[in-house]
Design goal:
The complex is a heterodimer. By secondary structure, chain A is an all-alpha fold. Chain A is built from twelve helices and no strands. In chain A, α1 runs antiparallel to α12, α2 packs across α12 and α4 packs across α7. The chains are: A mainly alpha, B mainly alpha. Chain A: Its main location: membrane.
Chain lengths: ~325, ~280
């Protein structure tokens, strides 16, 4: 998500490296293009973008605008002219203990759901780095969870966590830890973390694949040189390898972090936010308010709040990427 | 010394590393193995021996899911919902990506902001107003409506993705064609398009998986139950049944098997799509 292309096509600045990767050619503004060609380009450009813009305007922008309208009224899904309530939905949101609890769960999710996949994905990528034989098989195995449907993932992990006949409890009993067995998704103290563990299982593959591709570009001679200088495993990782993959690592971290705000599917499938709200995040709370309690305006307010919370992080991501792109060009 | 070196530098991995990788791979794949083995058990076997692998092989569970669970219909619906929406995404994204990368046109900046918005906003932010909008458009319980919504959730990524591919193409080809008298449309369709087929392939696979895996869009916007896909069917199957885990495993297997096959065959395209989307843009 780099900054949008705001360059004026009519004013070519060939020295401007542009926002993206090095070696990328400037394509829109060149000397020696006739006015007729430019008109033709403008017409074709508008024509090619129009269908995508129309679909997105109707099914994304319009409902978004409606969402903003819903926030200021009290809509129950039936009344075609809902009463205007101003900021009452926001006032209720800030005073609602359920919202704060859900927000706390969001924070747990953002931290745990970012740190764990980063560490595990990096570890797997380092372990596989340089392996030739069977490398494709391992890659497929580690990445597969990421492409599976969240519903199916939720179902299967539901069996693993099941109170009786569940695999996890079965394993715990087998090793003599009977005291730890429980209904993992039904116990308020573990429900959130059980779902989070499942989410980590799916997210590790994403981090792994991207970091592995970054490792391919690491200068191995430098690693060898450090080894000859007597650097140990940790020193080589810390001072030679990590700095070289840092741009990609930060990028993955930022994407995972922002994904943490948008968490919804897995919690919805596995616990629905329960038991008694123990695993609710703002997304599931928004859903239950809107679709189960017919509190459509309040639910929409919660959903919008998450988006607003994510915006500073998205801007940070955008800045980060621009800076890294400049650094890569400078190098 | 050579042993520690192997931990980083490309080269041959020792048996220890393969054991570690193999163990982790099995651990990662364990839930998938669990689905497969439970599906192939008899219901008797599931009750007596829930933890072991199947001791007697049976297709009874698959048959039950297929006929009683209605997964044959769900499978057809999944295809009807993911193929058209994927084609729509790939075609519209390729067109838009080309324009964003190589054509100056009025309104490019606001149009591009729309793409950025689409990348940022999570679906559940506007899923409720969209429900009422679709209702008033008479697009609830409709293949057209759900396909369009699925496509709209993927278009921003697609346009972003294809834009990166078109931006990478050299300018000289385009200039040469222009000197030879090719129109702008011909440059796009005859010259540039064939050069990004690998990108289109990657986008096709990635989008198809996303649309196949989506369950919330069909769940919300097919309240009447018409054309429910596998994922939504599975979700309702879970909610509506008792402890009979065998057919449930079979339904899960039917849902994930096409994903696994497609992914194993085309994993390069999937990862390429992911890496380009995450890092390249």
């Amino acid at each position: 998500m780099s900054r949008p292309d705001v360059r004026e096509p009519a004013a070519p600045t060939p020295s401007d490296p542009g926002p993206a990767a090095p070696g990328r050619r400037r394509t829109t503004a060149r000397a020696g293009i006739s006015a007729a060609t430019r008109r033709e380009q403008a017409r074709l450009g508008a024509l090619l973008v129009a269908p995508a813009v129309v679909v997105m305007a109707v099914f994304l922008v319009f409902p978004m605008l409606n969402a903003i309208y819903y926030v200021f009224v009290d809509f129950d899904g039936l009344d075609p002219n809902p009463p205007w309530v101003g900021l009452a939905n926001f006032a209720e949101m800030f005073g609602d203990p359920d919202v704060w609890a859900a927000f706390g769960n969001n924070l747990v999710w953002i931290v745990g759901g970012t740190v764990a996949p980063l560490v595990l994905g990096l570890g797997l990528a380092l372990l596989l780095w340089g392996v030739r034989r069977g490398s494709a098989v391992y890659r497929v195995a580690f990445f597969l969870p990421y492409v599976l449907p969240p519903v199916a993932v939720g179902v299967v992990w539901g069996w693993i966590y099941a109170p009786t006949r569940g695999w996890l409890n079965g394993v715990l009993e087998a090793v003599g830890l009977d005291g730890l067995t429980r209904g993992w998704l039904g116990d308020p103290s573990t429900a959130l973390y059980a779902v989070l563990a499942t989410a980590v299982w799916t997210a590790v593959g994403f981090v792994f694949v991207i970091i592995l591709s970054a490792l391919r570009n690491v200068d191995v001679d430098q690693v060898d040189a450090a080894l000859l200088d007597g650097a140990n495993w940790w020193q080589r990782l810390r001072y030679v390898v990590l700095p070289q993959i840092m741009p990609v690592f930060l990028m993955v971290a930022a994407i995972t972090l922002i994904g943490g705000f948008a968490v919804f599917d897995l919690i919805f499938v596995m616990t629905g936010g329960g038991p008694a709200g123990a695993s609710d995040v703002l997304g599931t709370l928004a859903y239950s308010n809107a679709f189960q309690l017919s509190r459509i305006s309040y639910g929409t307010t919660l959903a919008l709040a998450i988006t607003v919370l994510a915006v500073p992080f998205a801007i940070w991501l955008d800045r980060l990427q621009s800076r890294l792109a400049r650094e890569r060009i400078g190098a | 010394m050579t042993r520690t070196k192997k931990a980083y530098a490309p080269g041959r991995a020792g048996i220890g590393r393969h054991l570690a990788l193999g163990g982790l791979a099995l651990l990662t794949l364990f839930p998938v193995i669990l689905v497969l083995s439970t599906t192939l058990k008899t219901s008797q076997d599931v009750r007596v021996n829930p933890f072991g692998l199947f001791s007697s092989f049976s297709l009874e569970n698959l048959r039950t899911a297929w006929t009683v669970g209605g997964f044959d219909g769900y499978l057809l619906n999944s295809i009807l919902l993911s193929v058209p929406s994927t084609v729509l995404v790939v075609v519209l994204s390729t067109m838009a990506g080309y324009a964003f990368a190589r054509l100056p046109f009025p309104g490019r900046t606001p149009a591009f902001y729309l793409v950025v918005l689409g990348l940022l906003v999570p679906f559940f932010t506007y899923m409720v107003p969209l429900y009422f909008q679709l209702r008033s458009m008479r697009l609830l319980d409709s293949l057209v409506g759900v396909n369009l919504v699925l496509a709209s959730t993927q278009l921003a990524f697609g346009a972003w993705f294809m834009r990166a591919f078109f931006t990478d193409l050299p300018t000289e080809i385009e200039q040469a064609a222009r000197i030879d008298g090719a129109s702008e449309w011909q440059i796009f369709s005859r010259i540039m398009l064939p050069l990004v087929t690998s990108g289109m392939g990657a986008l096709t696979v990635f989008t198809f998986l996303q649309n196949w895996n989506n369950f919330l869009v069909p769940l919300l916007y097919m309240p009447g139950g018409g054309y429910r896909p596998l994922t939504t069917g599975l979700y309702l199957f879970v909610g509506g049944r008792s402890v009979d885990i065998g057919p449930l495993a079979a339904g899960t297997l039917i849902t994930i098997l096409p994903v696994i096959l497609l992914f194993v065959v085309l994993q390069r395209q999937v990862t390429q799509g992911l890496i380009s989307g995450a890092v390249k843009g």
